[in-house]
What we know:
The chain is an alpha/beta fold. It has helices at about 20-30, 70-85, 95-100, 125-135, 145-155, 200-210, 230-235, 255-260, 275-280, 295, 310-325, 325-340, 345-355, and strands at about 5-10, 35-40, 60, 90, 110-115, 140-145, 165, 190, 220, 245-250, 260-265, 285-290, 305.
Amino acid sequence: MSADTRLMLSVFPSFVVGGAQVRFVRLAESLGDAWRHAIIAMDGATACAERLPPGLDVTYPVVAVRKGDTVGNVRRFRALLRTLRPDLLVTHNWGSIEWAMANITGLVRHVHIEDGFGPEERARQIGRRVWTRRLVLRRATVVLPSRTLERIAAEVWRLPRGRIRYVPNGIDLARYAARQGKRGDPPVIGTVAALRPEKNLARLIGAFARVLERRPARLAIVGDGPERAALEALARNRGVAGAVTFHGQQADPAPFYQGFDLFALSSDTEQMPLSVLEAMGTGLAVAATDVGDVRAMLAPENAPLVVERDESSLAAAILAALANPEACDAMGRANRRRAEQEFDAATMIERYGAIFAGTG
């Protein structure tokens, strides 16, 4: 690839496998030779690099990141911006905000992508973070995948509306083909998630324990993370370990969705989760906590399964879906149609391509 090709510097709090990182892989693959890439993970973790397509021009610049040393970090990041001279800086979420601080004078054209919040901002925005975003993102193009975040950016962060872009996430619908075949016996409730606190898989395991008191079923958990040991212990303590399978991190989760009869989301905080889109693409009904844009994403037929963030409500939604498989399948078909109409990856890629190029 020519050295004259534009350089995109992408900064992530962590470049492990997650929604934002997987989306980046999809975008980088589709953009092909249009960009060279430099990737920085603030925590040094780069496991998602294994998913990048071979032949992509990618480097991983080294820069010292010292937790708590905001002034020093900003100075070092600013020096690296001057050294690398990227054509575009792309930052992701609060964990990369010091790079926005380093670029506050507009050294580099800047796109900031905000996918959501950690558990510390589940209930409300933290005041100092609001003021920081309000100050350092005013010159950036701010991309938001959910209407909830779009409203927060305009009304809470008070960013100029001309700087805000709503771009819903999208999936490759060909990879997530509509589910075929008969229901499992017993039926399989599945989820795909990083095992982190904000995903609250403990709520799902508790809800599943309540389901097993009423009927047989199985729970499949695809994903890994720091909470795995605690969640496995909880499954044993709730007496459901024999009916719960932890599949760990999977390079391609698509085949697992085909084995689910119902998808479950138990998060405390989300905005526009890719896992829900993938379940919709597979033609699954979704039992979910009412967070972010989840209710708006799903087909109206699925609305009865979107419930409050508590164990008993989630268990009731799962039981209602399993008790009426015909209605559950109809919800799944409606979700697939909605995914086809609203959440195709091609539209997302086109929008991001224009934003990165400075024309969108």
